[in-house]
Amino acid sequence: MANYIIVGCDLSDRTMMLQVAHNQETPQKRTFSNDAEGQAAMVRLLKVRAEAVGGARMVFAYEAGPHGFGLADYLQAAQIECHVLAPTHLPHTAKSRKQKTDEKDARRIFEALRGHLLAGNKLPGVWVPDAATRDDREPVRARLDAGQKATRTRNQIRMLLKRHSVTPPPEVGKRWTLKHLAWLRGLAGGASALKEGARTVLASLLRQWAALEEEAATLDKAIERLADEPRYRAQAAALDAMVGVGVLGAMVFLTEMGDLKRFPNRRDVGAYFGLVPRSNETGERTDCKGSITRQGPARLRQVLSQIAWTRVRLDPSEKEVYARLLKKNPKRRKIPLVACMRRTGIAMWHVALAAQASAPSTPPTPPPPGGRRHFALPARARKHRRPSEPEERRIAV
Fold first, then answer.
1. CB 279 within 8 A of CB 288
2. Which residues in the chain land under pLDDT 50?
3. How far apart are the first and last CA of the chain?
4. Which of 7, 94, 375, 383 has its Cα between 20 and 30 A from that of 215?
5. Strand 15-22 relative to strand 4-11: parallel, antiparallel, unpaired?
6. Burial letters for 311-333: b for 16+ Cβ neighbours within 10 Å, e otherwise?
7. Crossing angle (nearest 10°) for helices 178-188 and 196-227
8. Which CATH superfamily, name and number, covers 4-119?
């Protein structure tokens, strides 16, 4: 018979609420502080309990959340098996949602883990990325955040001018060009109909936007260096060769996806994107699909949306698919876009897998001094480009 010390944990900023039991025993509640001292005391307790019942296998589980995977790393280093569970996949009832406590949450996690160990029930665990992948995600996510903040700041500037009925003269041309920025700085400097309060705010927003643009450029350089690392070089180059992807789009895809081989087929890839339809089927209702699930990383869907729009505009085959789907229902333009997003994401998965399998072991060619590294395009990707399209594309996020 299997011999387990089973631990369900509800993790919060200050405490760790545990439900601990040996096999089918009634679980006991224990509480530890969520710091180095508390974690060490918890490990000592579990090892004492395991030795007392003949060296039982220690299995620990907690929900994924803002605390990341540091506790999982610590427990694995202490020779304790740890599972990180998806909160949205754990069973809930209407009553449990109205009577939520740390103790009950820990008991729910404990019961899910015990059902998995003793009865073979499916455990709703999440994939735990390695420490390198987690660290690689930080600059990529920071770059996306900087782009979103810059966009928000531009919208604030636009709304400020709209509130004061200020419009650019015809000679300024398009927004956010050098002429437009010079005109905005002139408004903030006092040569305008704006009053002092509006000029002060406009100057502040322009400084914020300039700082965010500078940060984005700095992070772009860091992401380019990351893309040139051996673990990403071949895949990033292959993805950058695809129409509309670029270095940033490639690195968002690779860091958010993690281990590409953990997806057995394209259906699982589409489900991870959250780009598959919901279903509500029962009895004779066997074909009731709804909107997409929107599960998985939202930032990946955001980037796939921008890549898909670019591919629809520049790639003839994608443009044909989009037009064919749009023709079925011209009033619902998002449906063909979602289909193109899913097609693009699955195509990127196939391309990255193939590049990973055929990655050469030769050292990389250093980038030219003072310039960006340009990835060489294969002939198949090059023939789909317009002659006027620049050799290197960047997505604006």
1. yes
2. 362-365, 367-397
3. 55
4. 375
5. antiparallel
6. bbebbeebeebbeebbeeeeeee
7. 140
8. ATPase, nucleotide binding domain (3.30.420.40)
